[in-house]
């Protein structure tokens, strides 16, 4: 019989499908910035920016990638990378530094407003509610969703944003940080996630149980690792371990 005391969860593509919301967020916050900035400049009788949507979005991505190379310790802090990239792009377009900082921050506020509009799997809330009665729960994510603004946050008294620790998964630091906050040893904890490299391997290396949310049934599973196709199958794994 296992002696599980805690379960940690990845978020994106584990508790919800992340692809659609990221596409809407990526495009939406940048379109909002160009429109709002254009209106602001018009009220000040200033010429519109030469920055177009398509070219601007590509430059924004390239700028983020360059910052990640130039400041490698920040490579997983996606909010920081986006802020710095927007500030740099707007300054390059001729905005004063102060205005570039304000508009970049406003664009990121819109980013986070859109980012939290994920739709958790229908089973997620009920599952987490039931699990919280038996285990301590925590979230460990490389993403930059503002979890506190999402209803599922109520189930995660411990939430680790790995990028803000400057140690994105598969670094062991976010896992160890969560376990320390929960005061649980690795062998008494389980991590649930969709990424083999970023979730399953580091958890298994630390001695945690791990549940891989994946339809890939060709991968040979090491000890303490289990595979499910959907989060709704997790209770069956727990029953098997407890039995």
What would a concise description of this structure say?
By secondary structure, the chain is an alpha/beta fold.
Number of strands: 6
- Structural class label: alpha/beta
Specify the helix fraction band.
40-55%
Distance between the termini: 6 Å
Order of helices and strands: EHHHHHEEHEHEEH
Strand content: 5-15%
Taking pLDDT < 50 over at least 5 consecutive residues as the criterion, the unreliable ranges are none
Q: Strand count, sense and closure of the main sheet?
A: 6 strands, parallel
The best one-word shape is elongated
Rg, alpha carbons: 21 Å
Mean pLDDT: 95
Provide a count of the helices: 8
What strand order characterises the main sheet?
Answer: 3-2-1-4-5-6
